[in-house]
Automatic annotation (TrEMBL), chain A:
Protein function: With CysN forms the ATP sulfurylase (ATPS) that catalyzes the adenylation of sulfate producing adenosine 5'-phosphosulfate (APS) and diphosphate, the first enzymatic step in sulfur assimilation pathway. APS synthesis involves the formation of a high-energy phosphoric-sulfuric acid anhydride bond driven by GTP hydrolysis by CysN coupled to ATP hydrolysis by CysD.
Family (UniProt): Belongs to the PAPS reductase family. CysD subfamily.
Taxonomic source organism: Paracoccus onubensis
Entry protein name: Sulfate adenylyltransferase subunit 2
InterPro entries, per the entry: PAPS_reduct_dom, Rossmann-like_a/b/a_fold, SO4_adenylTrfase_ssu, Sulfate_adenylyltrnsfr_sub2
Molecular functions per Gene Ontology: ATP binding; sulfate adenylyltransferase (ATP) activity
UniProt-listed Pfam families: PAPS_reduct
Reactions listed under catalytic activity: sulfate + ATP + H(+) = adenosine 5'-phosphosulfate + diphosphate
Summary of subunit composition and partner proteins: Heterodimer composed of CysD, the smaller subunit, and CysN.
Gene name as annotated: cysD
Keywords recorded for this protein, A-Z: ATP-binding, Nucleotide-binding, Nucleotidyltransferase, Transferase
Transmembrane segments: none
Automatic annotation (TrEMBL), chain B:
InterPro entries named in the record: APS, APS_kinase_dom, CysN_GTP-bd, CysN_II, CysN_NoDQ_III, EFTu-like_2, G_TR_CS, GTP-eEF1A_C
PROSITE patterns linked to this entry: G_TR_1 (PS00301), G_TR_2 (PS51722)
UniProt similarity note: Belongs to the APS kinase family. In the C-terminal section; belongs to the APS kinase family.
Protein name (record): Multifunctional fusion protein
Function text: APS kinase catalyzes the synthesis of activated sulfate.
Organism this protein belongs to: Paracoccus onubensis
Length: 311, 640
């Protein structure tokens, strides 16, 4: 019995970097899905994580295009710049793009101004369930990461949903080594998170290193904003309802996370390039999700939403 | 904040602020280490992880505000920052105040990115710990300096060792509560060393820390100048990574998916589990055994000159040979084994207990086959490391089983290559993952040998000899007198005209079992072989006498089950350890006590006395001659 020496010999030059290891893991996960699923789909939200995931999918199946469609569960309230990139990205990847709008939400005119949390529930949660059922997708890739918030830290990479799309955090399958159990009963589906082990910084570094195109909203520019409940909200189109006496101000802002524009807070910033964005992110002291109104209710809110079927 | 915090030092703020490009360049070359933390409920595991996240600036201001708020409401640190709240994720758990599943946390320094598997400390969750350990390069085992080595510490260490983690840090925590005492530290290290040796752990690195106060976490503790080793983080930044280790192994890649975008391209996509591959390399596809050469290593970023363990790639071949998902591509002249029967360690993970004989789906590498599991050879009591006889394995139980698959599969022993030696079992009805397994070795009977029916059967052999075949199985401690008594018994039977054969432990080990040592696995295999030989001899109509320590009930039962009812006569040669040790005919006890002999039954390896032996002979009360007489009487009576 000996105790270990305090230092180990120099790492060999062949040691993979953290990004190479993360990339290899994500590619492995995507291939496992394609080899096992009947009808997989990649959920695409146009954010930076989606951009990263799509890029990894291109790598995983090269020289073939990714053998599944992209699907955007839309709320009709995203930033205009997001719609523009979405259509182009799908075309560039040689993938079919499915855009789903919850017909009930369309009919009732559900919007973030009048309907509060119902807006997210109906467009996103219900919309996603509808779309998965409608197209009979049995596996859906999502770009969620474990570092985003606490309940995600315990979610598996292959996360099972019951026939009515519910998540049971107490009854998750153990994931050992690289062995993923992809078997499911009829009606059950799997959400697969190939970016589970990436952090926000990893994503940014990878985007930088690989030159992945992202929505320009991530970079600072003068944009018209109003301040509401401590959040800077961008007035992206004329559907925005200004309060009495409220006048949009031009401010140099950018977004750390993208969602429905009336619900997404901007941060004041001068970061116009990717390195500057990363620099700002590293020096800043508020976490990513603070810009999202959805999280503010309670610490357990995300877990509850997920049990109900929110991605 | 009343917490004793040191400046977060991991991220070089100045470089970020002054030259972000230089910073990014530096961080592109970081490596990644995955580790697991394990400890008992109150060892301060969550506090330690919270501390690492905090010191590496992975906690943002808003999270900190929410943390301060929570610490006041549900914290256990009397209103002070409760780091544990940072990492206890799910709502139900937060209320219970315990972590109950595997959670993954992330932090980074200038040198490395870290993924921490945080697993619970309490008993019923072996499953979670094994899950967390399966992907870890290193394990941090926490000990509360006030408590020392607990039963749970032993269980965690045993599991970590079973899962093949070679880098173990023994973090002796809460040193602030024992006045940073070097004496206490070394006392615990001594205690743990003893245990580590017992379970075959090759090495470990002890570090005295305080997660709450930050001693020896990032910076050297001012309170423990007596400790010369690295800080916890310092060590984590240096420790070797498993993927890198696997590069020295012969090339192995399990095929995940065949890429056929058009008629001109056929590529085999997979994750390189071991070794290095280059275009032109001679490879073999298993189980078919077909050979060809690698034509190219295709990636989105262009073809590669070489690819190494840990990379996901696509290979094309020079020749059109059959190859599909589940196959393993290996270095042509150093292939792995292919077999359909194995001995494996199983960790049972389901509420529904294991059913020997029931078909399960076994997933190994990239393929799924149907497999059946035998009754456990033994179950391990993870608290005492004793081997127990068991008919099944329940939730969180660990045991050794034989597994047979419906077709031959390429594999490697888990301790050589976890990528081709680790598997999961899936229930065919519920689709639940019910067990994790680690292959120890292939059983030799694995070569698809079919039973040859013969016309002159066992009864015919025995009746010609005018006797009933039997196996008289002497079991007992070394020096109890098994061989002596068996020898006298054989002489007496021979004189009575009986056809006998004596299989002696030492003699068998000179030939048939020359390749076996004295580890538990080898002892089991030793007895299995002797059992099979005995059975063949009873087929020949002989009365077989065996003299083996055969310490485990389950192996003796295994032999009993090989034979026809009534043929197995278990004779327990009952001699107290003190007496056997006093006799010490071969001088073995003396050696064992001196530490020169490992795994010696009665000293550092258990002996499980029979519960239902056909005959017990006490050699303190009886002479060898008298004992033999008793045995002969029994044999003659039962063979009438």
């Amino acid at each position: 019995m000996t105790t270990q020496p305090a230092t180990e010999p120099e790492l060999s030059t062949a040691t993979l970097t953290h990004l190479q290891r993360l990339e290899a893991e994500s590619i492995h996960i995507m291939r496992e899905v394609v080899a096992n699923a009947d009808n997989p789909v990649m959920l695409y939200s146009v954010g930076k994580d989606s951009a990263c995931m799509l890029h990894l999918a291109k790598k995983a199946f090269y020289p073939a295009p990714p053998p599944f469609p992209l699907m955007h569960v839309d709320t009709t309230w995203k930033f205009r710049a997001m719609y523009e990139l979405r259509d182009r990205a799908a075309e560039d990847a040689g993938m079919k793009l499915i855009v789903h709008h919850n017909p009930e939400a369309v009919e009732k005119g559900i919007n973030p101004f009048d309907h509060g949390s119902l807006h997210t529930d109906m467009w996103k949660t219900d919309g996603l369930k509808q779309a998965l059922t409608k197209y009979n997708f049995d596996v859906a890739f999502g770009g969620a990461r474990r570092d985003e918030e606490k309940s995600r830290a315990k979610e598996r990479i292959f996360s099972f949903r019951s026939a009515n799309h519910r998540w049971d955090p107490k009854n998750q399958r153990p994931e050992l080594w690289r062995q993923y159990n992809t078997r499911k009963a009829k009606g059950e589906s799997i959400r697969v998170f190939p970016l589970s082990n990436w952090t926000e910084l990893d994503i940014w570094q990878y985007i930088h290193l690989e030159g992945i195109e992202i929505v320009p909203l991530y970079f600072s520019e003068p944009r018209p904003v109003v301040e509401r409940d401590g959040l800077l909200i961008m007035v992206d189109d004329d559907r925005f309802r200004l309060n009495e006496g409220e006048v949009p101000q031009m401010k140099s802002v950018r977004f750390r996370t993208l969602g429905c524009y009336p619900l997404t807070g901007a941060v004041e910033s001068e970061a116009k390039t990717l390195p500057e964005v990363i620099q700002e992110m590293l020096l800043t002291t508020t976490s990513e999700r603070q810009g999202r109104a959805i999280d503010h209710d309670s610490a357990a809110s995300m877990e509850k939403k997920k049990q109900e079927g929110y991605f | 904040m009343t917490l004793d915090t040191k400046d977060p030092v991991y991220l070089t703020d100045t470089l970020i602020a002054e030259d972000i490009d230089a910073y990014l360049l530096k961080h592109q070359h970081k490596t990644m280490l995955r580790f697991i933390t394990c400890g008992s409920v109150d060892d301060g595991k969550s506090t330690l992880i919270g501390r690492l996240l905090y010191d590496s600036k992975m906690i943002f201001e808003d999270q900190l505000a929410s943390l301060e708020n929570d610490s006041k409401n549900v914290g256990t640190q009397a209103g002070e920052i409760d780091f544990a709240l940072l990492v206890d994720g799910l709502a139900a758990e937060r209320e219970q105040g315990i972590t109950i599943d595997v959670a993954y946390r992330f932090f980074a320094t200038d040198k490395r990115k870290f993924i921490v598997a945080d697993t619970p400390g309490h008993e019923q969750y072996t499953r979670n710990m094994v899950t967390g350990a399966s992907t870890a390069d290193l394990a941090v085992i926490l000990i509360d300096a006030r408590q020392g080595v607990l039963t749970q510490t032993k269980r965690h260490s045993y599991l970590v060792n079973q899962l093949g983690i070679r880098n173990v840090v023994l973090a002796i925590n809460k040193m602030d509560l024992v006045d940073y005492s070097a004496e206490r530290f070394y006392e615990i290290v001594g205690e743990y060393s003893h245990f580590a040796k017992q379970i075959g752990m090759e090495s470990f690195l002890p570090i005295p820390i305080s997660g709450l106060k930050g001693d020896n976490i990032v910076t050297k503790s001012e309170h423990m100048a007596w400790f010369q080793g690295p800080t916890l983080l310092g060590h984590l930044e240096q420790a070797p990574i498993s993927d890198a280790r696997m590069q020295d192994h012969p090339f192995r890649m399990a095929v995940q998916w065949v890429n056929r975008p058009n008629l001109d391209f056929r590529g085999f996509a997979g994750f390189i589990g071991a070794g290095v591959v280059r275009p032109g390399d001679a490879i073999r596809v298993l189980p078919s055994g077909k050979t060809t050469r690698v034509k190219s290593i295709v990636t989105y970023d262009g073809n590669l000159d070489q690819a190494i363990a840990g990379q996901s790639v696509t290979l094309t071949f020079e020749d059109e040979i059959d190859c599909s998902r589940g196959d393993v591509i290996v270095k042509s002249d150093e292939p792995c084994e292919v077999a359909d029967q194995f001995e494996a360690t199983l960790v049972w993970m389901s509420e529904e207990e294991m059913l020997p004989g029931r078909p399960y789906i076994l997933k190994i590498g990239t393929q799924s086959v149907t497999a059946t599991v035998t009754e456990p050879k033994y179950e391990v009591n993870v608290n005492t490391l004793e081997h127990l006889a068991s008919k099944t394995l329940g939730l969180n139980a660990i045991g050794a089983v034989n597994i047979s698959t419906d077709r031959a599969i390429p594999f490697e022993a888990y301790d050589k290559n976890p990528d081709l030696g680790g598997f999961i079992l899936i229930d065919r009805m519920t689709n639940a993952t019910v067990a994790a397994g680690m292959i120890k070795f292939a059983l030799r009977r694995s070569q698809n040998i079919h039973w040859q029916a013969v016309d002159v059967d066992r009864d015919a052999h025995a009746s010609l000899k005018n006797q009933k075949a039997a196996v008289v199985w002497f079991t007992g401690l070394s020096g109890s007198g098994k061989s002596t008594i068996a020898n006298i018994v054989e002489k007496k039977l021979h004189a009575l005209g009986k056809h006998t054969f004596l299989l002696d432990g030492d003699n068998v080990r000179h030939g048939l079992n020359r390749d076996l040592g004295f580890t538990d696995a080898d002892r089991v295999e030793n007895i299995r072989r002797v059992g099979e030989v005995s059975r063949l001899m009873t087929d020949a109509g002989l009365i077989v006498l065996t003299a083996f320590i055969s310490p485990f009930r389950s192996e003796r039962r295994m032999v009993r089950e090989l034979l026809t009812n009534g043929e197995f006569v278990e004779v327990y040669v009952d001699t107290p350890l003190e007496v056997a040790e006093q006799r010490d005919v071969k001088g073995l006890y003396k050696k064992a006590r001196a530490g020169e002999l490992k795994n010696f039954t009665g000293i550092d390896s258990p002996y499980e006395a029979p519960e239902t032996a056909e005959l017990t002979v006490n050699t303190v009360e009886l002479s060898a001659e008298e004992a033999a007489e008793k045995v002969v009487d029994y044999i003659l009576k039962s063979s009438r």
